[in-house]
Write a structure and sequence with these properties.
heterodimer, A: alpha+beta, Methylamine Dehydrogenase, Chain H, 3 domains, five-stranded mixed sheet, four-stranded antiparallel sheet, 35 strands, elongated, B: mainly alpha, two-stranded antiparallel ribbon, 19 helices, 62% helix
């Protein structure tokens, strides 16, 4: 009943040939039409048609024209339908082509399947092995040489500038203090600064025009060696956010035995401010009731380069204000932009010095009405010194010119006295100054001081500065709460808050994943920065006044006895070391590549080899 | 009119009617419907784990079957049908993904980026064909790879290419492999997948350019069998190298070759090595001299090519989306245009830091710098070894399959008069 299927006898070769021919022609036809249709679709822009746009313009002039409105809708619908119909046609046509080609191939394969194999022999003496090998070698050698020579010529001519340009962009982002535009225009000298890329394999040369302030050789050399990564220009690093970019930071030392201590220099006057660094110079300040001084120390040797006594300041009060011992008269950390160094003291004296200690300007901002003593550190934005002056009367945020000391802008703040320092961050969208003081955390445009946003979420006598990471601001204060604020939208929102562990002095520090918070009684806690879930807590047993800094994924937290607690910024607490300075310390560390700088009660230390 | 002509005409008329049907819809009448409901966005559910393992089972099953058919049954026709099955299953049903050719990039990415989680299927699809090749030759290429299969069905009028042309074009896959590894290792792009010329046919979806390239390659396949496999496939490079060590590789004759020369031109891929004869036997002192010469030339070639390639690292790095974005942001800052590209707006609205982006872009640039050195060095090595291979002629007395380039398709078997 059933015949065995035999492909060899299924249809004639002629039939399959014709099927192949017809399906081939059909496929070709559809292909041509598809290409035509594709070009049509490619040209069409259904949502941006000239006719519709002109009608829409007419409608804007007369919005009450209902008929025109309907006409536009009809046209719009038509153009969209035409577009999607064309798309559908392309898709359907594609299936037709596929089917036709499949049919053609099947037909041809059937013909081929039925063909008898006829071996074709080459001439008997056709042994060209050697010839072909020689020919191939010649082609490879000549062709390869030609390609290589061309590539070499272009390689020699090629200029690779991206890394260099990214480095400049990065510098501009992380330290909004370089390239003071006004100074640039004044510059007489054009210098070539070499920035050593620590992660790269080559040196990057960046051409900068810098201020003519660097005229002597020392300054030039100093500036030449400096890059943003080598510097630590403000309290808690660039922008004051507690993140250090430096690498190869030591994790072990002993101040009492001198182990891993490069040098140690006594600082004449007391001060709870932290060291700042630019190039080969470290700056700290010191003060008592009678005297205020700015010190410049050689970063490599520890030798005191210069000391400037801050005196004869116009309008400076004759008597120092009353402050508590834990604040002192030199609590605010100075700031530098590589062109000048700027320092403020408890009596409101503020001074601008050049890098050689020559006074640029000085004035008194008025004695701050502050019952503990002024402690907010200075920040720098471009050619502005940012001063938080949240005192008893007329609390405000000010920006002084780095060149003249004159007030460029001043924004009044309806807040209570606070001791927190400004934090300058680039959110990706803009640069903001963020401040915390009862009753709110607020952000300001550093260019003009205008308030960008504020959110009520903090109270009390605010000491800790905020931390920022990944679009989130973290504020905290004792007897208040820890708040994680999501910014970026028009109105910031508190994503999560917590009242279990609160700090009154150390500032928190954050990464994209973690928030590290230390309390002044020595308990440190790590949260999930996004959800607020607590990962771990650790009791160190000693009080902590210094703020933690994160460098290379490690947290450096100094307790009051001088023990540096080094641990991983991670989900679990992993201690990496607890080296001792050998003297008490309340200051936040500063870093350069391979070195850490710590200020104790009496001495400044450079640690590393 | 003959019956066959009638059939052909009916087919043509039916097709034209069908074509005319959608021609009418080219000009749809205006519609005035209201109350249009926006459809909800639906995301496809991930493929069930069972089917992932099923794919693996099909791969192993197909490889085992085709290996048995090639080595034991020595049947070209059976190989052809397995090839059709693979084309339908791995090609049109599984839409060409996951395939071992592309999986080499997943493996590379996982090796250089520990945070990338490579699925077990990815590793298995990469390793299993290599293991089969190590023991039995390139049976995967013979009829399991959908990319090879789609070209093979088009190989209707294959012509033999000159050996030197094959050798020259055969260098391209090595360069392509180097590039694929570089871009995968730097987490920049999967170029093998992006520029897969046939995946568009399997998915009925690709850019016009990719369809055009695929179409051209298939057309070329009619005359030059499997052009992608021979002159482009980066995975083929690995299979080629591994296959050289295979013990049970397909042989033209099941027993001793009688040197009848009937198979001489049977291979459309030019993968049959002819006997070289005694006249090409080189004295050992000549061979040693040549080896010493190449030992000196190859490191030099590697160094020059490495240095040259390293100079192009920025051009290569621009393929990486982070470097590209950082470049665009930098350019937009220096541009006076007020139009901000969408990519930059999207990045800024994400709240991510530009500083971090520039830092990351710099790290990627450094990786490319190093990677380009390796790529250049690798290309230099390939050129050097190819020259060395061409200089040193192996002594052969029989017609044998070239273990490296033979796809084990078993075409030659039908030409051999020795059947047992």
């Amino acid at each position: 009943m059933f015949k065995k299927f035999d492909l060899k006898n299924f249809g004639t070769d002629q039939l399959w040939n014709r099927i192949a021919l017809v399906s081939g022609i059909f496929a070709l036809l559809v292909c041509v039409l598809l290409i035509g249709n594709y070009i049509q679709v490619k040209k069409a822009d259904p949502i941006n048609m000239k006719v519709i746009n002109s009608l829409v313009e007419r409608l804007h002039k007369d919005p009450s024209d209902v008929k025109l409105r309907e006409e536009i809708r009809t046209l719009d619908l038509l153009s969209r339908k035409a577009y999607f119909t064309s798309k559908w046609q392309i898709r359907t046509g594609g299936y037709f082509v596929l089917a036709a080609i499949a049919l053609m191939v099947i037909s041809l394969q059937i013909i081929s399947y039925r063909k008898t194999i006829v071996p074709q022999l080459s001439p008997e003496n056709d042994d060209n092995t050697m010839a072909y090998r020689n020919k191939t070698r010649v082609f490879i050698v000549t062709g390869g040489s030609l390609i290589l020579a061309t590539a070499l010529i272009f390689a020699i001519l090629a200029t690779n500038e991206l890394k260099e340009k990214f480095a400049v962009q990065e510098i501009n982002e992380e330290t909004p203090i370089e390239n003071n535009s006004d100074l640039i225009t004044q510059a007489a000298d054009s210098l070539v600064l070499e920035i050593i890329d620590t992660t790269g394999t080559s040196n990057i040369t960046i051409k900068h025009t810098v201020a003519s302030a660097f005229t002597n050789n020392d300054s030039v050399n100093e500036k030449s060696a400096a890059s943003s990564k080598d510097n630590f220009p403000t309290f808690r690093g660039p922008g004051g956010n507690g993140i250090a970019k430096q690498k190869n930071i030591p994790i072990s030392w002993d101040g009492s035995t001198g182990d891993n201590i490069r040098w140690k220099t006594a600082i004449p006057l007391p001060g709870y401010n932290s060291p700042i660094i630019w190039g080969n110079k470290i700056f700290v300040t010191g003060a008592n009731t009678a005297k205020r001084e700015v010190y410049c120390i050689n970063r490599n040797t520890g030798a005191m380069i210069w000391t400037v006594v801050v005196e004869n300041i116009p309008n400076s009060p004759g008597q120092a204000p009353k402050v508590i011992a834990e604040t002192g008269h030199a609590a605010p950390t100075a700031a530098t932009d590589g062109i000048g160094v700027y320092a403020i003291f408890s009596n409101g004296d503020i001074i601008g010095l050049d890098m050689d200690g020559k006074k640029l300007w000085a004035e008194n901002l008025g004695v701050p009405g502050n019952h503990y003593g002024h402690s907010s550190s200075l920040m720098i934005f471009k050619d502005l010194v940012i001063v938080q002056y949240d005192q008893k009367t007329s609390p405000k945020l000010m920006a002084l010119s780095t060149k003249t000391g004159k007030t460029v802008w001043s924004t009044n703040r309806d807040v209570k006295i606070s001791w927190a320092s400004p934090v300058i961050v680039n959110t990706g969208k803009r640069t903001e100054i963020i401040l915390a003081a009862e009753p709110f955390v607020a952000s300001y445009n550093p260019a003009d001081g205008k308030e960008l946003w504020k959110i009520d979420c903090i109270s009390g006598e605010v000491g800790p500065s905020v931390a920022y990471a990944n679009g989130m601001v973290f504020s905290v204060n004792d007897y208040s709460k820890l708040a994680a604020i999501k910014i970026g939208a028009d109105q910031p929102t508190v994503l999560w808050e917590n009242t279990d562990y609160l700090s009154d002095i150390p500032s928190p520090v954050a990464t994209d994943k973690y928030l590290i918070l230390s309390t002044s009684y020595g308990l440190t806690v790590c949260y999930d920065a996004v959800t607020g879930e607590k990962y771990w807590e650790k009791e160190f047993g000693n009080n902590v006044y210094a703020s933690p800094i994160i460098a290379e994924g490690k947290v450096y937290l100094m307790d009051k006895t001088g023990i540096m607690h080094i641990f991983k910024a991670d989900k679990e607490y992993v201690s990496l070391g607890e080296p001792k300075l050998g003297e008490p310390s309340v200051c936040t560390p500063a870093f350069t590549n391979g070195f850490i700088y710590l200020r104790g009660d009496k001495n400044l230390y450079s640690i590393g080899k | 009119m003959k019956k066959s002509t009638q059939v052909a005409l009916i087919l043509l008329i039916t097709s034209l009617i069908a074509f005319n049907l959608f021609g009418v819809q080219r000009f749809p009448r205006p519609e005035f419907e209201n109350g249009y409901q926006q459809p909800e966005t639906i995301l496809n559910a991930p493929r069930a784990l069972f089917f992932e393992y099923f794919d693996l089972a099909v791969l192993i099953g197909s490889l085992s079957l085709i290996t048995w058919l090639i080595l034991k049954k020595r049947s070209r026709k059976a190989v052809f049908w397995v090839m059709i099955f693979s084309l339908l299953y791995f090609g049109f049903y599984r839409k060409g993904c996951i395939c071992p050719v592309g999986s080499l990039q997943n493996v590379t990415l996982a090796l250089f980026n520990p945070e990338y989680s490579l699925p077990i299927n990815g590793i298995a699809f990469f390793i299993i064909p290599l293991v089969f090749t190590l023991f039995f030759g390139r049976t995967f290429c013979a009829g399991v790879c959908p990319l090879g299969a789609i070209q093979d069905v088009f190989a209707l009028r294959p012509v033999s290419l000159k050996s030197w042309v094959q050798s020259l074009l055969g260098l391209i896959p090595f360069i392509y492999l180097g590039l694929a590894v570089l871009f995968a290792a730097t987490a920049s792009d999967f170029i093998v997948c992006r520029y897969d010329p046939f995946v568009g046919f399997f998915r009925h979806n690709a850019s016009f350019m990719m369809f055009a390239i695929g179409g051209i390659l298939l057309f070329i396949s009619v005359f030059i069998a499997r052009p992608y496999c021979r002159f482009l496939c980066p995975y083929g490079v690995l299979l080629n190298l591994v296959s050289r060590f295979s013990k049970k590789h397909l042989t033209i004759a099941p027993s001793a070759c009688i040197s009848c020369r009937l198979c001489e031109n049977s291979c459309p891929f030019g993968a049959i090595d002819k006997p070289t004869g005694a006249k090409f036997k080189q004295p050992s002192n000549v061979l040693v001299k040549k080896l010493i010469l190449y030992c000196l030339i190859i490191p030099f070639l590697m160094a020059v090519c490495g240095w040259t390639a390293s100079k192009y690292y920025e051009s290569f790095a621009k393929v990486n989306f982070k470097v590209k974005l950082a470049t665009e942001i930098m350019q937009s800052k220096n541009s006076e245009s007020e139009v901000i590209p969408l990519e930059i707006t999207a990045f800024r609205s994400s709240g991510n830091s530009e500083e971090v982006l520039f830092e990351e872009a710099k790290v990627i640039l450094n990786r490319f710098y190093l990677g380009n050195w390796f790529l250049g060095g690798f290309i230099g090595l390939v050129f050097g070894l190819t020259l060395a291979r061409l200089t040193i002629i192996p002594y052969k007395t029989d017609y044998t399959t070239n273990k490296g380039t033979c796809f084990s398709c078993a075409r030659c078997v039908d030409y051999c008069p020795v059947k047992e």
